[in-house]
Amino acid sequence: MRTTIIKKTLRVPASDGAPGDGAAVARQLDAALISSGFKASRELLEHVGGLAEAEDFAAEIVRAVKELIGARGQHNPYFKEFPHNVPDTLAFWWECLRDALDKGVAPTSNLLDLPKYGRVQHSYEEMLRAHDELIPSLKDRITVVHLGGTLDEEVRRLFEELATSPIPLAENDRALLGELAVLCVDSEVEVPIRENRAILNAARLVAQRPLQGMDTVTDVLRLAAEASGGDVTLKEATRFRSFRRPERRALLGALNEVAESKLGDVNSNREAWKRLGERLHPHEYPFERAQDVFAVARGEKVARSFAGQVEMAFAENDTERAIGILAKAPGMLLRQLDRLLRHGAENLAEHVEAAVPEVSSRVLISVLEHLSNRTTPDAARVFASRARRVWIADDEREPLDPKAVETIVEVVENELIRRLPEYSELVVDDEVLDVVVPVSGTEEGFGVLPRGSKLWFGGDVLRFFVHWRQHVKRTDYDLSAVLLNKNFEYKGQVSWTNLKQAGAYYSGDLTNASDGATEFIDLHRDAMRAKYVVPQVNIYSGEGFDEVAESMFGFMSRDLDQMGKPFEPSTVRARSSMRGRGKVALPVMFEREGDSWFGTWLHLYLRGSSWGNRVEENRDVVKLIAAAALRRKYFTVARLRDLFTRKGSTKDAPVIRIGLTQDETGAVTTVAELGKLLSD
To answer: Which of 54, 199, 300, 669 is buried most, with the most CB atoms less than 10 Å from its CB?
Structure first.
């Protein structure tokens, strides 16, 4: 758990080891961290320096930060001297054919089966000897690692941070919360997100503790799914386990306490309820309301859902009745604003003003972002689910009336301003202004930001990479990049089918990852002819992103005179896990502007084909996604700062600082904590 906490928080739980002289180990720790782009805080060095047996403790810290940036494996590219001496594509294939003939192997119709192709022809040590040492630069990243409290205190701290999150967690954080909930099963915390509530209740169910916060039938279904090792979001079907008798009584008892008006919610998950009923045996217990739930699922009892009532009102073109129904569910009213505006709803701002105090801040932020993109027509609609799957459709909607939108935006912004904390001074780092205020969790990793967030960095060379390690089946991932001009027109690509093009270089294709495999692409800024570059990871064959032992995407930057091996930890700017259900990953896109690079996080996955995905087949879709991502207006920290300015400062209130990372004092509000500034 200590390693997990370090990776998640960059806080090191204090050791309870015997005191002694660990000064030499502390110096070694600091040197090891600096070589990976980190630095120990003064308090952490003093703590390590005061331990008698500090070696194992220090080694765990170094191991954790290396895992965080993906530096633990041996990243050995196919071309030993990459990015130098990358051959022309045709010359490389001829070399592979000659090698096959020299070995007496008859070439087949599948060139990927040639003996020399896809398999590293040199050792890791031979690759290292082909590269000069990295020359440190002031531009290299330095991230501070802080000393935390005791292990128990840090477990509790992280548990409370995740459990009380005002936004839905990403899949990796939900799994971590489940582990922490077992350790903190008796903790009393306010949990605003229902998925998180189900995760905590699953731990309580197993421990035979009272369940908390179960006021809808869907809450019980989420709990049953989580307790069965299934999908707490209910997007994927769950195979429910057999529950013990006390667990069945607890679940049915919770259902029995739900108001009858909520029975209509059963309809949206009817099949799941039927499967759960087979496990709970509701007729064995004296819970009539719970039995009604399963009767609705089987169609033996009719319960009209709230959403169904709204749909009937819209079908009959009765907008006033639709508003009357929606007024009973403020969150749904806000989510239906676009539809209501398109139906010509009158006095809508008054209904919104009455509803917003009961709506979560993340929904208000989502509404503002949505409306800011609806007053002008768009060429295409790009949809992205919480599972990060993306699809595209023509935008056939009429743009909304700007004046009507402006009126509603003012109401919503005034509510957010009311929720902002008092402050005497607001200090916002420039690097965070274009970061999107998160309304849901992001991928696990280092330096990862919400979708749509922009980051700036310098460097002559931008290098991005993919690393994966297969679990059972031979697995071939392919790193590629689509090159676009300023009008988002296709200007070429770099991949295993085109090894280099105008300042872009590919490190070579690896087709087996039993011990892990890494592919790189280099972009040399001054030689680039493209305005935009969209990296992608294609699953050519084998295991998916959710099936491999590990998979990650990252990028680094450096100057040409720094030299160094292909993977230098101190130059890594970000590293993101890849755990989507599509076959093509689009983690981020880059823009070249003068002497700088601008990255825009995408966190998207295309469905792709079951086998043989290649950049040539999806480049047109990628163009649309790239254009849509850059044209979209997001709710960023810059807009949040403007709301703070409208609120005005208060003389005796605290100073609020917003940045990407914590400082030594711990007084900075990071991106992950922004939601708590707007807590309801």
So the answer is: 199
